[in-house]
Give the backbone structure.
Amino acid sequence: MSAWVLPDHIADVLPSEARHIEELRRDLLDTARCYGYELVMPPLLEHLESLLSGSGEALDLQTFKLVDQLSGRMLGLRADSTPQVARIDAHLLNRVGVTRLCYCGPVLHTRAGDPHATREPLQFGAEIYGHAGLEADIEVLTLALDCLRAAKLEQPSVDLADARLVKALLAGLSVSPQQLKLLHAALVVKDIPELKLLTKDMPASVQQGLLALVKLYGDQTVLIEAENVLPPLPGVREALQNLKCLADRLKGVSVTFDLADLRGYAYYTGARFAIYAPGVSNALVRGGRYDEVGAVFGRNRPAAGFSLDIKALVNAVSFRPLKPAVRAPWRDDSRLSAAISDLRAQGEIVVCILPGHESEVDEFQCDRELVEIAGQWAIQAMN
Amino acid sequence: MSAWVLPDHIADVLPSEARHIEELRRDLLDTARCYGYELVMPPLLEHLESLLSGSGEALDLQTFKLVDQLSGRMLGLRADSTPQVARIDAHLLNRVGVTRLCYCGPVLHTRAGDPHATREPLQFGAEIYGHAGLEADIEVLTLALDCLRAAKLEQPSVDLADARLVKALLAGLSVSPQQLKLLHAALVVKDIPELKLLTKDMPASVQQGLLALVKLYGDQTVLIEAENVLPPLPGVREALQNLKCLADRLKGVSVTFDLADLRGYAYYTGARFAIYAPGVSNALVRGGRYDEVGAVFGRNRPAAGFSLDIKALVNAVSFRPLKPAVRAPWRDDSRLSAAISDLRAQGEIVVCILPGHESEVDEFQCDRELVEIAGQWAIQAMN
């Protein structure tokens, strides 16, 4: 095989896409910064038990492992930065009050999520720690939408769910982890016959509640229907009220609900959201409340946040043209050098044409050039 | 061991340093862009033979290896992006003329370069392909200095060397790879007794030339002395002339020479430079000409460039203070939301104080706050 063939689902990002990704990266980080989210940079490599503790089997399978020559211990390449940022909040910062953090960097996956997915997403995310109230959920959801607005994504739509519904319905029952896993899988794919089978020994109200969840998707009327068909347990009522509050705070965005959506269940402990765009099948953003994410690091404090893959986002937004450049000749002339420096200091792209390359095609669209007129270097429009 | 202990020479980057690194990253990329260098993003993981072909033993030892579950093949985590960018120039872009590329991303090393070094540098670099003349060397060196200027590094000094001097002296002799390695090692540490031993069977002019190199370090007078003491071979003359030209183009920067400096020898084929700063023992930037870097990818075209570690650079420049933020209360009030959005759109950091957290210490220095005066939200200086 040729030396330059890359592994499957691994790719170089070439100039025009790379520039666009870099611009999105800055827009997202700047948006988070204006909300008071402080940037942190967790490492690519950690001890495996630190990277995976409390995170569940799915993340374990997604994580590349290798041996540290310095210690002989197993290391993992991060497949998700969320637990790393929780570790930073819990141990390095260890602040008493509200902490807002954001991050942006590559993560690596052993397997691609779908046939077109990359194994090296560029994960951007934001997290707020230390506030249990719905205000934190509202803030991260608003921030996520503002990030997509900064990225110029058209017509985002928000899908809401809540991890507490199933928990409330099953409260007090003894359900084995294996049974719970099957139950979640059946709910995610809305498999009613399988659900019936799995819940046949449960109390009728629980069975009916779980079966009802499968049909509770669509617009705001879902919440009214849910109040009617789900048992009036406190956990159920609180979740539905929270979802209504969240939806009410979203102005100018289409909102739907899918009360059986349990993806990433191991993580979430409250309201959850996914943000979609027209023509893109997978969610561009996933987020919500995951109060237990820092528990393994000894600090079980409230947390809410979201993350997205900039490499997926760049395919969902319109191409941004590069501004035209200025062409300059190459000479050992300090006045020319000064003229070029001035233009670059103003943010202009100035491409020097090296001797012998005058007739090559420019990679940049040059609409002006530096020319010497009566001993002065001046900028002139190009034909 | 605790779950949150990181591997040796691996660290989290916390908020104030992360913000500074991000600002440097943007300054460097923007500087390269204004020179017409297009951003590319090579992957973190590649097939081992692609990552290491032609790159020598040192890079092999620095490279973490792991198995691809999808193919069963060995993968490497990049320890240096330079060969990756050469691969992109050779195969993906495959342009006829001059190509200018830049990149910025983490690399991983199995072992730290020195006791304080990180194993996860943030490598930034720029490369120019397709021009064999000294103009390309001048451009990358000028760009490197402009990058350091943008990073606000004080008093950079440039150290120049040339990989052709030793090659020219040894031309025509049969020297085994093992002998060459010992020779380079002795030159790097300026070990004269060892050099005498290694060159004892060589022609007197070669031995004297190699021994002379060890003493040829210092200011511009080194070049004059070199002309006198080195044999007048064409390769020697060309290298010395190139070094003089390079030095003449550097205005306002201290320039020194070290003609026995052979670090990274496997790489370089012409003039080389290292850039230092006061109080920093290691070079912050290393670069030069490496015409053979793309050969293994079937396209042996001229190349010059440089790279640096932003995590090292950030420690060499002054801290940049964060601009003060605006404090805002939390309310479900659309006029307040609009006022906050306006401020954020102007680039202000607005931190919302969530209910119950009014008396916490702000992580941001807030010098203004949003207050409601006669039904209007207005900005007010804080005491």
